[in-house]
Amino acid sequence: MRNIVILISGSGSNMAAIVSASQRERWDARLDAGVASVISNRAQAGGLALAQAQGIATQVVDHKAYATREDFDAALRASIDACSPSLVVLAGFMRILTPGFVSHYEGRLLNIHPSLLPAFTGLHTHARALQAGCRVAGATVHRVTCELDHGEILAQAVVPILPGDTPQTLAARVLTQEHLVYPQVIARLLQKQ
Ligand code: GRF
Predict the structure, then answer these.
(1) Is the pTM of this model over 0.90?
(2) Which atom of ligand 1 lies at the shortest distance from residue 47's CA?
């Protein structure tokens, strides 16, 4: 059985979508892979309870307990590597990772970003897309490199921007697509491994 480790910081809706895909019989039979652990840098992350409710092991590695980014990444790495994961999936994980961490997981580290990259890297993507007058928005699944929100684009989901949209309504529309595209990309990568 191959393992996936998911890193979260918040509500964990993408994580929950990946967990439920991984628990479907078709995914199980075909991919022989499951979510071994969900790790959060915040003990209050809502996603931890969601994962526990699905029977998934959870861990907290609190970044505030470490003096440096390197120390935090080393602790995170130890927790992840205990699971020997085929893929490490960032799902709303709000910490910048050190180059050493990123290169350790080269080819196995994925992220989802709520914009059509390369447009709107960073934060407040939906407000910025509205402000720019975009007619479409979306999300991008990409490999993680040392440069924030860069790296090979693996898939994108596109949604229309509708009259009267606010950052919140647009975010909700994009999120429904994130929940479809992220599990699809993970399944595709596992199939190739
Ligand atoms: C998503 O919009 C994702 O694209 C971004 O952070 C958000 C996480 O949401 N990286 P959730 O925690 O998966 O609900």
Answers:
(1) yes
(2) 12
